[in-house]
Design goal:
heterodimer; A: 280 residues; mainly alpha; MetI-like fold; 71% helix; B: 355 residues; alpha+beta; Rossmann fold; OB fold (Dihydrolipoamide Acetyltransferase, E2P); ATP hydrolysis activity (chain B); Putative spermidine/putrescine transport system ATP-binding protein/spermidine/putrescine transport system ATP-binding protein (chain B); ABC-type transporter activity (chain B)
């Protein structure tokens, strides 16, 4: 009775919700196919891939200068990669430590979590002032990198904490009681079991660092990361080449997600599939 | 004499002051099958985990083969542990699970394969060798766990309620396998359970625990026949306990206590205050043997099921004693509800204990 009314209503509500969620992205994708003489708004004068060609430097010189993203893109990817490695290792290690209640574990937990709670602008500003005071040069690979780790490490930590929360300790005890050292137990038993969680922690760290803005703004120094250089172009005038770039980075993120999904699937199906003995 | 395992007043107190186990003394011979029995929370699993090295020992010492292992980490102890939830490695096949301990130790592949094949064969697991462990039944998984724990050739096998997660039928089967296995291998088994039948049926000796304290350490039959504490009298078998005051020795290892039901003679010193009578020691009519203990009551329930008569006799303190008798006996058939009944007990079956 009730569901006959409620279900369609909820379905419509959810559809509208999703539309709002993805609306900006859809608009951006449509406008990226604007023609040469079209502006960054509707209507579409003519469908074309001109701005994609412009972005990649395939068009003859036009009145619009090419988007200066090449170097900053590489910087952002390198920074995100560095952040991913450090945050994931830290996250796994500290979550492992938190499996046993230790003295001061409560305050330590909140201190770690603080990294993702405090406003980015404040941390960025604070870092800039601190580095000025003690005379450290600001750079994306230095001051920004530290703040990216401070920001993404809590996420990796929380993901791993949740994984260890469901982890059956007796499996490790079984390995130990067979005479296997704690290090080998971690490598051969614990790590393979928590690996899906490690992948998730890596994905979180990478995506959060890749589009981090406020913390990087004050700490990157002269060489800009991708979000900063895109923001920089806004101050002049907006052309649809930014939309084209947005579509490409979104595709990049989707690729990451797909790789993540495939790795997860491969891992879990490998775990479930018939498998012969491996040589140790 | 070097014992396989020796616990010297072992105890565990948690940082908050809670005492989990205190003053646990035990000497285990090579090849002995010892069961730790008690209700949940009595400290039996904690003691086992202290033997395995998973729990810190706060008092006393643990010796294995004459070596003090009190502060030795679990991987360096000659023990192997079997868990109630099997604790198999989910990312490995059955064969990999079993081979794991040898593999990590760096045993050559040929030698390892021979050992693994032999133990898989012993546990009837070859046909599952390449399957994932979590696709198998509980009984098979526990066999895998046993194979994995035994292939590394431990001196002492620790079993933490290994049958607890199995259904009754499987439990009986694995229970028999365990007994045979233990006899065959001659390895010392320490077995934790809360099921009386497992402890009494499997072990050479039973350690009964309650509230972190050892109540009694005895072979199963003696534990059943001669409980030493009120807890054991209540926990093992089905006993009736009579309170009384000491009346001194009666000779030949017997003693007497004066109870509400008169003088009761039983095995003891005569300075005890409780008389423990096992249910099967009650006779419905006096045997007229000298020294027989007699207790008066009235018949409160009678059920004749085939050849067996289930009677209940109400005593003057309104307790009821259940008795099984042959239904063919004319004197039993003649009994009517409410009729006075004299229960006879052979004093040799009665145990006197301290409260």
């Amino acid at each position: 009775m009730e569901s006959r009314v409620l279900r369609p209503v909820l379905a419509i509500y959810s559809s509208i919700f999703l539309l709002f969620l993805y609306g900006p992205m859809i608009v951006l994708a449509i406008l990226s196919f604007q023609s040469v003489d079209g502006g960054p708004q509707f209507p579409i004068r003519e469908w074309s891939t001109y701005w994609y060609q412009h972005l990649l430097g395939l068009t003859e010189t036009s009145r619009v200068s090419q988007l200066p993203v090449g170097d900053s893109l590489i910087r952002s990817i390198v920074l995100a990669f560095m952040t991913t490695v450090v945050s994931t290792v830290l996250g796994v290690m500290s979550a492992e430590a938190f499996r046993i209640k230790f003295k001061g574990s409560g305050p330590a937990f909140y201190l770690i979590i603080l990294g993702m709670m405090v406003p980015g602008v404040l941390v960025g500003l604070g870092m800039a002032l601190l580095s000025n005071t003690i005379g450290i040069g600001r750079a994306w690979w230095g001051t920004s990198f530290v703040l990216h780790v401070v920001y993404t490490y809590p996420f990796a930590f929380l993901v791993m904490l949740a994984i260890f929360n469901r982890f059956d300790r007796t499996v490790e005890e079984a390995a130990l009681s067979l005479g296997v050292s704690p290090a080998q137990t971690f490598r051969r038993v614990t790590f393979p079991i928590i690996f899906p969680g490690v992948l998730s922690a890596m994905l979180f760290s990478f995506t959060l660092s890749y589009d981090e803005f406020s913390r990087t703004l004050f700490t990157a120094g002269r060489d800009l990361t991708l979000p900063l250089s895109i923001y920089g172009t806004f101050s002049v005038e907006i052309y649809p080449n930014i939309f084209a770039f947005g579509v490409l980075t979104t595709l990049f993120s989707f690729t990451l997600l797909v790789v993540y999904g495939l790795l997860m699937k491969r891992f879990t199906s490998k775990a479930a599939r018939f498998k012969g003995q491996e040589d140790g | 004499m070097v014992h396989d395992l020796e616990l010297i007043s072992v105890g565990k107190t948690y940082p908050d002051g809670t005492v989990a186990v205190s003053d646990f003394d035990l000497k285990v011979e090579k090849g002995e099958f010892v069961a730790f029995l008690g209700p949940s929370g009595c400290g039996k699993s904690t003691t086992l985990r202290m033997i395995a090295g998973f729990e810190d020992i706060t008092n006393g010492e643990v010796m294995m083969m004459g070596r003090n292992v009190t502060h030795v980490p679990p991987e360096k102890r000659p023990t192997s542990m079997i868990f109630q939830n099997y604790a198999l490695f989910p990312h490995m096949s059955v064969r990999e699970n079993v081979a794991f301990g040898l593999d990590v130790k760096g045993m050559p592949k040929a030698e390892r394969d021979t050992k693994v094949d032999r133990i898989l064969d012993m546990f009837d697991l070859e046909q599952f060798a390449d399957r994932k462990a979590d696709k198998l039944s509980g009984g098979q998984r526990q066999r895998i766990a046993l194979a994995r724990g035994l292939v590394v050739e431990p001196e002492i096998l620790l079993l933490d309620e290994p049958l607890g997660a199995l259904d009754a039928n499987l439990r009986r089967i694995i229970q028999n396998e365990l007994k045979l296995l233990q006899r065959e291998l001659g390895i010392t088994f320490i077995f934790v359970t809360h099921a009386q039948s497992e402890a009494l049926g499997l072990s050479d000796r039973v350690v009964v625990m309650s509230n972190g304290v050892v109540e009694q350490i005895s072979p199963p039959r003696e534990l059943y026949r001669r409980p030493k504490t009120p807890f054991v009298a209540d926990f093992i078998g089905s006993n009736t306990v009579f309170e009384g005051s000491p009346k001194g020795a009666a000779g030949n290892g017997f003693g007497r206590i004066e109870t509400l039901f008169g003088l009761i003679e039983g095995v003891g010193q005569g300075n005890e205050t409780l008389a423990v009578v096992p249910a099967e020691a009650f006779r419905i009519t006096p045997l007229d043997t000298p020294g027989e203990v007699r207790i008066e009551g009235t018949l409160s329930e009678r059920q004749l099921v085939g050849a067996v008569g289930h009677l209940k006799v109400r005593l003057s303190d309104s307790r009821e004693v259940a008795i099984e008798v042959s239904a063919d006996r004319p004197d039993v058939r003649a009994l009517t509800l409410g009729a006075p009944v004299t229960l006879g007990i052979d004093p040799a079956a009665i145990t006197l204990i301290h409260a």
